[in-house]
Amino acid sequence: MLQIKSFTFNPFMENTYVLYDESKEAVIFDPGCYEKHEQLELDRFIEEEGLIVKHLINTHCHIDHVLGNAYIKRKYKVPLYIHKNDLPVLKSVAAYAPNYGFAAYEEADADFYLSEKDKLKFGNTIMDILFVPGHAPGHLVFYHEPTGICIAGDTLFQGSIGRTDLPGGDHKTLINAIKQQMFTLPEETKVYPGHGPMTTIGIEKVHNPFVGKNARF
């Protein structure tokens, strides 16, 4: 059975997720761990659960989601996967990280590219991949049908959506992608966003003010 553990890291209050199953193989999504104590918190959980980290994945490559990339790659000797459209986003982080107070940011190169045509496989788990651009040009969402778990990054939040005023963002693109990709998932799907609490597709289809049935924006 697929299990999920969430951590909230860095001043952006970013959600980092570890997914794992009975095989003990695990995937780390969006490591926002920048400070040493954040890295140790993540390491402690992985060690206590006896997990074997197989993949490192960025749903997208904004600074708050990639701060721990280099550390995770070095610590667990795993490759980094992104969508190819987000490569310029990843490359740009080093230039502006000091302006946000992250002077010790370490760059990490992407090793492989994922697309919506691929599947994410680890242990006994297979996850579908959705392409949901708009917040970032190469934003990916990961969905596990048997458990209804959806790793949504900064696409859909409880009562909100990802901001679209950053380079590569586009409001109309995001709205359409959410409706065409995420809102086709079962209503009981549990959405784990890049910030804030978990929600469900059903709740957001009704109540989200940006993309719900009574959208106001």
Automatic annotation (TrEMBL):
<dbReference type="InterPro" id="IPR051453">
    <property type="entry name" value="MBL_Glyoxalase_II"/>
</dbReference>
<dbReference type="Pfam" id="PF00753">
    <property type="entry name" value="Lactamase_B"/>
</dbReference>
<keyword id="KW-0479">Metal-binding</keyword>
<dbReference type="GO" id="GO:0046872">
    <property type="term" value="F:metal ion binding"/>
</dbReference>
<dbReference type="InterPro" id="IPR001279">
    <property type="entry name" value="Metallo-B-lactamas"/>
</dbReference>
<protein>
    <recommendedName>
        <fullName>Metallo-beta-lactamase domain-containing protein</fullName>
    </recommendedName>
</protein>
<keyword id="KW-0378">Hydrolase</keyword>
<dbReference type="InterPro" id="IPR036866">
    <property type="entry name" value="RibonucZ/Hydroxyglut_hydro"/>
</dbReference>
<feature type="domain" description="Metallo-beta-lactamase">
    <location>
        <begin position="13"/>
        <end position="195"/>
    </location>
</feature>
<dbReference type="GO" id="GO:0016787">
    <property type="term" value="F:hydrolase activity"/>
</dbReference>
<keyword id="KW-0862">Zinc</keyword>
